[in-house]
Design brief:
alpha/beta, about 25% strand, binds iron/sulfur cluster
Amino acid sequence: MNPPSIVTIIESLPVMEQFYTIQGEGYHQGKAAGFIRLAGCDVGCFWCDVKESWDAANHNLISVEKIASDCSQYPSDICVITGGEPLMHDLTNLTRSLHSFNKKTHLETSGAYPVTGSWDWICVSPKKFKAPVPEIMTLADELKVIVYNQSDFKWAESFSDKVTDKCMLFLQPEWSKEKTMLPLITEYVKENPKWNISLQIHKYLNIP
Ligand code: SF4
């Protein structure tokens, strides 16, 4: 006799913070959006600006219904799930709950884990410290590569032929290297116009 199947239903998730702001990066930059920053990340980028998100145990578990309900109060119909690395969690119920509030679900992920949930927009930002799972690249609506040094242009190109034709391509300077790398990115995009520049405009605006 087969053992009963075990179905894990995610009822609550560790939340570092939830807030309403302007999407500062990538294709949707400049648009108002609710943000849900889930805790937990084992990717280990040394330049990470949200290291306090890494240990999920340091953050409160909040019910999926409350997370979605809180996000539904914001006027924008966009809800961005970020981290941490949000795909460390099963996001099926969270995205289902957000859709029940007629919110659009946008994911920001390093791609280090398989996709769960139902998404209206997927931004994959691969990191050198933990490779993305190959299948995620074909699901990406947006590929956003952080440029920390000159070798990152070649690294970015190694992903550009793994995404679909409809995927938007962005190069974004790592914030601490912005002054050095932005002129190089500008020249690179002029030479390779399939790429676009992404700036962290929320940092220029001094908002979260
Ligand atoms: Fe930080 Fe994101 Fe890298 Fe995780 S994947 S270490 S949250 S920058």
